[in-house]
Amino acid sequence: MIDQPILRLQNVEMSFGTKQVLNGINLEVGKGQIIGYIGPNGAGKSTTVKLMLGLIEGYTGKIEIFGKDIADGDYTYKGRIGYVPETAELYDHLTASEYLTFTGEMYGLGRKEAENKAYQLMFQFGLEQAFHQRLSSFSKGMRQKVLIISSVLHNPDLLFYDEPLSGLDANSVLVVKEILAKLAKEGKTVFYSSHIMEVVEKISDRIILLVDGKVVADGSFEELQEQGKEGTLEEIFNQMTGFNEQGEIAERFVEIVREGRVHE
Amino acid sequence: MNDFKSLKVLDVFRGVFEKFDIDYPIMRQIIQLKLTMDSRRMPAIFNGYKQKKESNQFLKSLWLYLFYGLLLLTPFLFLKSQYMFATSMMFTMLMFITVTTMVSDFSAVLLDVRDKNILQPKPVSNRTLSAAKLMHIVIYLVLLNGAFVVIPFAVGVYRYGLFYGLIFLVSVLFVGSLVVVVTAFVYLFILRFFSGEKLKDIINYVQIFLAIAVMLSYQVMAHSFELSQVNIQYTFHWWHILLPPLWYGAPFEVLLNHNYSASLFVLMACGIVIPVLALRLYIKLMPAFERSLSKLLSDSVRTKGKSRPFEEWCAKILCRDPQERTFYRFAALMMRQEREFKLKAYPQVGFALVFPFVMFFNEVRMYSFKETIANENVFPVYFSALMIPTVVHLLRFSGKYKGSWIYRAAPINNDKMLYSSALKAAIMQLFFPAFIVISMAFALLFSWEVIPDIIIIFLVGILITLISYVILNGETYPFSTSHELTQDNNTMKLFMAMFVIGGFALVHFFIANIPYARGIYTLLLIAAIVIGWHVVFGKKKNHGRP
Fold it and tell me: Where is the ABC transporter domain (chain A) (predicted)?
């Protein structure tokens, strides 16, 4: 038991129509942790995050964030959360400056304050030249940086990052990883979902593996290693999700490639 | 994928392409793919019509061009004056239509950057790629111009004989190639000096302009037959060399009327030499053009933000809550910067601006200018309120509607303020400017005494905004639905909103002559707006969404 959990999920279930997506999730997360939230496609990772943010509704069970049940209708908890969604969806006919100032203000910052802070953060990412350009002209990596900035402008205590490194170059990945570690040290909680196991293995204090809407493993990387066999997180992931056909699939794939027309 | 008829026609020329070292089967495949993609795109001339999946919108738009050809070109064939005037007018129309459709519909073809990434890595020669691009445009232009000129052509042959038809066709051919090349030059020029975003803005404005022009042309068409009574003598001035339509009026005069004056020969020579030179230059500059296309995705010119004091001021006056103010500015930005929204909303605003004047001039034609002025009839201004329901309805949509996750992720205390401020922004950004222009013009035309009436109409406009929102939108988040769903069974609701406007106009009409009634009506309207706004957007049920 953690004495002051930042977030706690009790028996959370969710279904879309007849499809059960979450089958009773139980979780407790404390302050200053980086949680690696992993699982195969369709396991319910994004759904969990969206439920906690109130983006989708209609779950059963209990979700508490900062010690308060989010179903009681008090929206203010959202002001202490930062979110980077999986798909980089933005109103991209706005400029970076316009978008960031808007989101900053939505989270309660003053106008000048939001714009200044956004500019300084863009500067740190080397994007100050692009500050007044439309987001539609941004590359994938630049958009991702804008989303990361928009998630921290209001100095939140809890961060939900869904695949935050996608599209970033190796150097920027280093920077963002370092930023996450520093934020966690300051007592912020980071809820991090990704498919890149090497990164999750390195940065997470604790790893939660979700399969078919259920938590099947929960612990630090070392604890997971003890549970299963030795190996990388990737191997543990394969083991726990019961996937071992990679050899045969690859074999068949290459066979089909080889068949048919050959270049002369 | 369909096998298009145009491709079968192209097959006839297979030998020609192969002589130019072009891989014909591959070029054919590329064009087939592009035609298939285009058949799922919406031509701008159809803007506002219901979209049905999997039917070739372009082929349908050809019927519309056929109709335009009948109404815009054919009347000139009955002019009693020289060939010069009539044919030049026809070619002016032809050029106008070709240029605007070229810019609005084919810029996607001309400016396709995906070609570079998708097709160039594949083993296809550059020659074949350029040929495919060119033939793609040629197919369109042939179909479009074909539909546009077929009726005038038939009438021309019937009236003036086969020789006339021959000159006509050759001229159309030259006009077409001139237009393609000039458009490409203009793009090249813009891309050379400005950013891709600027070019997209310009294309957007041309599309808006075309939409307004199409709507207005219905008005003009009615009068174009009256023109056929006019008899105009042509006299040459040196600056006529700068007017391409006259280049193509000249051959008719020379070859059919045997008018062998030097000036006509100069014009005719221009018509032949300039397109040929331009085409050669174009082929030479083609690589430079392709290179600058990479700039399309850039927005490198702007390095400074703009400040908008008027908008700031409006936000401060109209919204008390700071979050609402933020959202007001956001909605104003969305309306100004989203091209899809502008393409659909601005023609409505343009129409609202023009329509009262069209009504005014109709009245002038029916009575006399003096009588019309004396009537002080302000009711045509109600016609500009007709744009309000459509524009309010458009606030639901955005091309990037998925970005709306931000409304739910952010800590918003009263999510009704999202629409409340979006409507306020729409009133200030779109209705108010149009309305100021109209009322200034009417006040100048008539007298300052119409101002109370105009204030009433403006208040009705605000009330209509609110009513339209309740009837048409009703949901919580603006800019959160895909544009593809526009026009889904909302025509009925739009009609309802129009009836409401009609009702208000009737009330206004009946009270117009009762003393003091206008003052009382004004106060009533203000009260209705304040109370209505409060009822619809009041801070009641903000907690505890189920």
Answer: 7-237
Edge-to-edge strand list for the sheet holding A7-16: A19-29, A7-16, A60-65, A68-69
Residues of A in contact with B327 (CB under 8 A): 106
Q: How far apart are CA B75 and CA B221, in angstroms?
A: 10
* Range(s) of the domain holding residue B238: 5-297
- Alpha carbon B317 to chain centroid distance? 34
Q: Is residue A182 part of a domain?
A: yes
Minimal CA separation from A104 to chain B, in Å:
9
Inter-chain touch A106–B411, beta carbons under 8 Å: yes
B341 and B250 in one domain?
Answer: no
Are B383 and B315 found together in one domain? yes
Domains: count for chain B:
2
Residues B282 and B367 grouped into a single domain = no
Predicted confidence at residue A143, as pLDDT, reads 92
| Residue B302 domain flag | no
- The Cα of A251 is separated from the nearest Cα of chain B by a number of Å equal to 27
Portion of chain B with pLDDT greater than 90, in percent? 8
Q: What's the CA angle centered on B87, arms B82 and B93, to 5 degrees?
A: 145
Mean of pLDDT values over A27-40: 89
Quick check: A95 and B302 CB within 8 A?
yes
Tokens describing residue A38: 């992993």
Q: Per-residue pLDDT tens for B52-98?
A: 444 566 677 778 888 878 877 777 777 665 677 778 878 888 888 88
Specify if A112 maps to a domain: no
Tell me which of B164-173, B194-203, B217-226, B422-431 is least confident: B217-226
State residue B296's pLDDT score: 66
Q: Residue-wise over A129-141: b if at least 16 C-beta within 10 A, else e?
A: ebbbbbbbbbeeb
Q: Is the residue at A107 inside a domain?
A: no
Q: What is the pLDDT of residues B143-202, one digit of tens each?
A: 888 888 888 888 888 888 888 889 989 999 888 888 888 887 877 777 777 777 777 788
The Cα A261–Cα B90 span in angstroms is: 56
pLDDT digits (tens, 9 = 90+) for B264-287: 888 888 888 998 898 888 877 777
Q: Is there a single domain that holds both residue B107 and residue B138?
A: yes
Does residue A181 form part of some domain? yes
Which of B91, B100, B246, B330 lies closest to A93 in space, CA to CA?
B330
Interface A–B counts its CB contacts (< 8 A) at 103
Residue of chain A whose alpha carbon sits nearest to that of B545: A73
Among A12, A69, A120, A94, residue whose Cα is nearest residue B337: A94
Residue B52: predicted pLDDT: 46
CB A90 within 8 A of CB B397: no
Q: Is B117 left (phi over 0), alpha (psi -120 to 50) or beta?
A: alpha
Q: Which residues of B touch A (CB under 8 A)?
A: 195-197, 297-300, 302-305, 322-323, 326-327, 329-330, 333-334, 337-339, 398-400, 402-403, 405-406, 408-413, 479, 543-546
CA–CA distance, B456 with B518 (Å, rounded to integer)? 8
B546 falls within a domain: no
pLDDT tens, position by position, A174-216? 999 999 999 999 999 999 988 888 888 888 999 998 888 888 8
Distance, in Å, from the CA atom of B194 to the CA atom of B191, rounded to the nearest integer, reads 5
Residues B90 and B167 placed together within one structural domain of the fold: yes
Q: A164: domain CATH number?
A: 3.40.50.300
Assess whether B439 and B371 both reside in one domain. Answer: yes
Contact: A78, B411; criterion CB under 8 Å: yes
CA distance B427 to B452: 19
Three-state DSSP class for residue A21: strand
Q: Provide the chain A residues 43-102 that lie in CB contact (below 8 A) with chain B.
A: 53-55, 57, 72-79, 81, 83, 85, 87, 89-95, 97-98, 102
